[in-house]
Write a structure and sequence with these properties.
The chain is about 75% helix and about 0% strand. The protein contains five helices and no strands. α1 packs antiparallel against α2 and α1 (about 10-40) packs across α3. GO terms for molecular function: ferric iron binding; oxidoreductase activity, acting on metal ions. It comes from Microbulbifer aggregans. Belongs to the Dps family. It is an enzyme of class 1 (oxidoreductase).
Length: about 160
């Protein structure tokens, strides 16, 4: 393969990719949590939450692919193991099956954490003049901010 020459220096590409790896790990962990909750939600809001969680994990499945491919575009290998994700993620693993209300709370916090991770990556991408990563991360922030809002709205009575 020929050497990469996309106008972003090797140091900047590495720095940006490291942030994207954390974003990938957070997104994948959130995907797993959302899918887990989709399978196990119960209660009066079952149908609404079951469908909402399905929409969310489907969107996240596409997102992890986009993020991993951006990492590869920067000529860095993307992590793809549970072990790697566990060390990179900022989102706590949930082992028990929480109540539906707690699921909404956990997922809200998860989406908010992804927004925080996006903000860190955004700064690195802006500093490295990587407009493609800026666009990707900006789009991800919008999705997670909106999803967190929708989850918060679901939990209000």
């Amino acid at each position: 393969m020929t050497k990469i020459d996309i106008g972003i220096g090797a140091k900047d590409r590495e720095h940006i990719a490291e942030g994207l790896k954390r974003l990938l790990a957070d997104s994948y962990t959130l995907y797993l949590q959302t899918h887990y909750f989709h399978w196990n939600v119960t209660g009066p809001m079952f149908r609404e939450l079951h469908l909402m969680f399905e929409e969310q994990y489907t969107e996240l499945a596409e997102a992890v692919d986009d993020i991993a491919e951006r990492i590869r575009t920067l000529d860095v290998y993307a992590p793809g193991t549970y072990k790697a994700f566990a060390t990179l993620t900022s989102i706590e693993e949930v082992v028990e099956v929480p109540t539906a209300e707690k699921m909404v709370e956990i997922l809200t916090k998860g989406h908010e954490q992804v927004v925080k991770t996006c903000r860190e990556v955004l700064k690195a991408a802006q500093d490295g003049e990587d407009e493609s990563t800026v666009a990707l991360v900006g789009d991800r922030m919008s999705v997670h901010e909106k999803t967190a809002w929708m989850l918060r709205a679901t939990s209000k009575s």
